[in-house]
């Protein structure tokens, strides 16, 4: 090993999230370039590696955990935060979001992605799965600059009501070809931090041909598919009526053999027990977005999915669906919402459902499995990528700590995240994003958002009576 490549982080509570759920109370970790080469007690790490290391950092009893993974994000929607509050899903889509998205320029998407990713980094996210916008190259440019890891996808639709004219003109061939070109251009670029997936917005805006050819193209290229699935009862009803399915979206996707282990199904709220079994047998991954679900979708049967062996991870969804792009908040909400559902929907009281360790797995190793990257990220283990988060627990929100796992899920706030490393490089240190000027991005984003909404013709009702 070259002395200049080694970094030691020590004197930390290291929450590994490995298969043995190891926690080192006074632990140390050694990083060589972009990978972890050792994890042990601080004393052992310092004795063995200190003479070889170029950087030795005392973490002062902070908590070190794997980089958090947000498995359902719309980075292109960040400039639309607050434009679709308190409306139903169809109004949300047809009246607000699609006019906004279809009016975006490449530069708008770049600025929106920068702003979104800054917020993601502050909440400890090192990797995210993009659910789809129209300007993937602009997203990639922002991800490259900020140093994050991402699975990027284009939002694809070739049918259905409410589509802006520019989108409605696309053929199925256009949709498939554009994604293949994006894959060729960006997949496995910027030191392997960017992967390109196929995107299907939702079944209500997809022909059978689009579904089938997406399935086959993703299999051929060995990549994933990101799709909104079973969001609202109307979706299932439409699938039953138009496609003669027995129940709804998941049943139909099972029929056409789209339920495979490279499918990341977002939300997946309105499913029955048979469909949960279909998801499990197909190896489908589910992204649970608690805040967005509670806002306009409903209670997803997450407990039943986990019990059936479905890999469930966490997502924030986009800013107009949630407003808060913090996976830290989603961990807290996921536990409370699903405990509450036991009382409300099932008539039982069981505080043990969705325990803290399960929720933290959803944000780490399950997230990695969901984005098909668990061989390299999702846990702190020798040989894996150095994607990690430093948490300062010495604040009024977390003190005292009797159980590190419990405190990370129930007590931690975004403000406790102080430093973030991705691929062996610090992308935030002491709460400062390193690769961009946050103030400048915020200023540019304000102007871009106003201009974009004016172009899109989106008018937001004013709820205040100014005097």
Automatic annotation (TrEMBL):
Gene Ontology MF terms: hydrolase activity, acting on carbon-nitrogen (but not peptide) bonds
Family annotation (CDD domains): ATZ_TRZ_like
Pfam families, A to Z: Amidohydro_1 (PF01979)
Domain Amidohydrolase-related: 63-426
The keyword Nucleus is annotated on this UniProt entry: no
Hydrolase among keywords: yes
Superkingdom per UniProt: Eukaryota
Keyword terms of this UniProt record: Hydrolase
Protein name per its UniProtKB record: N-acetylglucosamine-6-phosphate deacetylase
Species of provenance: Trema orientale (Charcoal tree)
